[in-house]
């Protein structure tokens, strides 16, 4: 391939990866591979400047804006950072800084490079007025409402000395613990898992529904301050002040006197970073003094006074001794690799995730192979490849089981799904146990005192078949029973025994669970795809278990955010005779089958398929009434003016900027009378 062809190929490919990464929150390649391709393109362009294409990703910030949000212009451009994986490059960087500053002395501030989404927050008179994404660096998406859901972001800064107008920038992220929690929940209801915390954060910030965003507890670390007036002389001062004003500044930064100090910081955090509550992929080195930053200036894409040093993913090699097939609550069978223990990023790794059978095939691994294990964003490390040079005659092909490792039932694979399933929902021991565990969790029936082996014991003793049987348990059933559990790994014994106090606690918790509301009961049933939020929406809409149980697929589809996949799953679940019997058992036990019907009754469909936004006040409706009438007639409310908006309803004292924007985008504006006329059409 000649340079011209290669440049064209790389330009197209990298633009595609950027699009996937920034617009769709998907990484099709790992960052290291991406950065290598980008470096190759940069080199080719330097060698053959005439061949550079106008769409080249080398001199532009990768993202763009989206149509779903209002566009905002950044007061100061939001740039990218030059990056490197090598110490030599860092020394080169330091030499450039030294040269650029003509012999002045300087120091650096080192920070961790947080792996999330860049955010810009604007404060006017101490009040948060705007939160935006980086977008293409010049314009970003206005996601103020979503940013307001972050609890550590101050909505108002209580400090006398803050400038009238200033901007802070930072990295929005999904804490690892939260990422794990969400994925556990998704696994529980059979949803596909989120790939990694960065992409999950990026996808969450782009959601339209701020209430849904609030449910994922996003967080944000702030790392820079900008204003028109000079407030600080150094970056260090700004970090200290931001912290003092109540911003969430990670206390991992450090002032470094020279590049050798920087290297020490890099080494120090290479493994320590895994103890942080979020993923980091390197460190950022910034010249401390603002006047020196100004002297050094910017390229089209990044500051000359800063650079990112990225850590290569931590890898180790180990031997694959076996595979354990785990059966989850929904029957999905997932392989876990059992490895010879190996030290990786400060922890001993014995297991690695393999996701599913496709992954085993893709990697081409065999039993007893030497494999590469990497610690990336996830808590469990993953196998990334095979060391073929060390394959011995001992290697054996991995034969994926065709029957359930727990109960022997032949496995099935549903169309379009990567996992094999054990269809024996009720008889398969791990599935049965997981069903109980799902039932007792806090968001379901909240009988968590039954955790940690107690359920296993009840099942073992034949005291319970389905969770409905919990409500028949008596003191005599429970008192005195016990079981010894042996931890396979440590060889330690653990005794679970039901003494008087335990029994009392359990029976009280079971009794109290009868007061759990309809959405909790519905969620407790464990219908695939019916998570907490869906259960709440169904309960709000139908008001009773019977109404849900007897609802047709079409009726279910009318519930907000309920698509065909959820609707079909619900209908199929209730069509099953044994499930019906189970539900009747729960009814007989006295659980809450009736709730509050909170959803607006459908009045008509005259607004179906149309989107609305309103501004100002109205004679015949309060804001709430207007919103509920729109929804009750099949219309949809949007949160901002975009080309997608069909009508802006304009009332008294309408917001001039909204009207202006609607005019610019040719969005039809209607008055209250016209809206009422549409209702009766
Ligand atoms: N895997 C893929 O498909 C794919 C596609 C596109 C981009 N990428 C990755 O994204 C990178 C490019 O993204 P980029 O342009 O946002 O650059 P970058 O992520 O390498 O650096 C700039 C960003 O770093 C972040 N940052 C984190 N901590 C910071 C701190 N302490 N101080 C200042 N900034 C901090 C900010 O959000 C800033 O916008 C590439 O290096 C690549 O690894 C991957
Ligand atoms: Zn099974």
TrEMBL record:
Residues binding NAD(+), per UniProt: 31-35, 80-81, 111, 134, 171, 286, 310
Positions that bind Zn(2+): 404, 407, 422, 428
Gene Ontology MF annotations: DNA ligase (NAD+) activity; metal ion binding
Keyword entries, A-Z: DNA damage, DNA repair, DNA replication, Ligase, Magnesium, Manganese, Metal-binding, NAD, Zinc
EC code: 6.5.1.2
Entry keyword Acyltransferase: no
NCBIfam families found in the cross-reference section: dnlj, PRK07956.1
Purpose: DNA ligase that catalyzes the formation of phosphodiester linkages between 5'-phosphoryl and 3'-hydroxyl groups in double-stranded DNA using NAD as a coenzyme and as the energy source for the reaction. It is essential for DNA replication and repair of damaged DNA.
Record protein name field: DNA ligase
Annotated organism of origin: Spirosoma pollinicola
